[in-house]
Amino acid sequence: MNLTTADTDLFYKLHRSLLVFANRQFDILPKEIAPEQVGVQPIEQVARLRDALYAKPELLDAYLAANPDRLVSEELGILASWRHRLSGEFYVMRHLKAYTVFMNGRGDPHLYGVLDLHDPLEAVLRGAALPLMVRATLLPFRDRIIYDGILSFYSLSFGPGIRSSMKETYNQFKEREGIIESLVSPDGQPQIRTSLTRKAPAQPAPDWRPAIDEIVAQTEKMRQTNTKLQSAAFGLLRAVANLAQATLQEQGAQDESAKRMKSVHTAVTKIEKLLYAGEW
């Protein structure tokens, strides 16, 4: 999803004004360049200036203190929130309807929902296959996350094993902490909001323990069968029922479930051997 046209124009106004302020120290772009001219400069030079600016965070503080472009308080607040930017290598994992999901490439994995600017990120990345490694800077913009309009990406291809591992990590963190959708609070202070935060609290599940206990009791009685395959199938049924029972324990559910999962694997293997051998 794109940031609104008005907000995208505001972002470029603020970002380019800040770049022009930094250029007075670094002289990477032509001297006396106006903010509206930054967009037509060679992207390599703009990226160099951007990197030099981010390497000296005190320049942002100096700009805010001087306010040379006479920005209003709301605009200054947006700029101030960029103290909490995230720069580095990311993996682009998914193009969703609401945003594109980035996963940081270093440290503990986190997922970030990044909005498009004028052009969809999928188009900016030329429809490249995902996951894709990029170098980017993510910025807070009010209660959303954007990138700063400059992306470099690597022509790397990932093998099936790595793609599978990254997909598993993506699913785990989407389920565990959600996709981070905001980096700052309304007053510009660090505050994480995720896709899980805004979801309505789930209704508590019914207490399934009596029903599962009854199923376990019934499967324990199902010992007499006519064939080896029936015996193995009923063994799998008992193993799965016991696994379900373990997950409902109030204490030690994870450890006990792991133990009972071994019985499930054993039961499945037994059925597979019978089927392959034709010993029904």
Please characterize this protein's 3D structure:
By secondary structure, the chain is of the alpha+beta class. It folds into three domains: 5-82, no CATH class; 85-194; 209-277. Helix content is 47%, strand content 16%. It has nine helices and eight strands. It has helices at 5-26, 43-55, 58-66, 73-81, 121-124, 160-176, 209-221, 228-247, 253-277; strands spanning 86-95, 100-104, 111-114, 132-141, 144-147, 152-153, 180-184, 190-194. Strands 1, 2, 3, 4, 5 and 6 form a six-stranded antiparallel β-sheet that branches. A two-stranded antiparallel ribbon has the order 7-8. α1 (5-26) crosses α2 (43-55), α7 packs antiparallel against α8 and α8 packs antiparallel against α9 (253-277). It is elongated and about 90 Å long. The protein starts with a helix and ends with a helix. The mean pLDDT is 93.
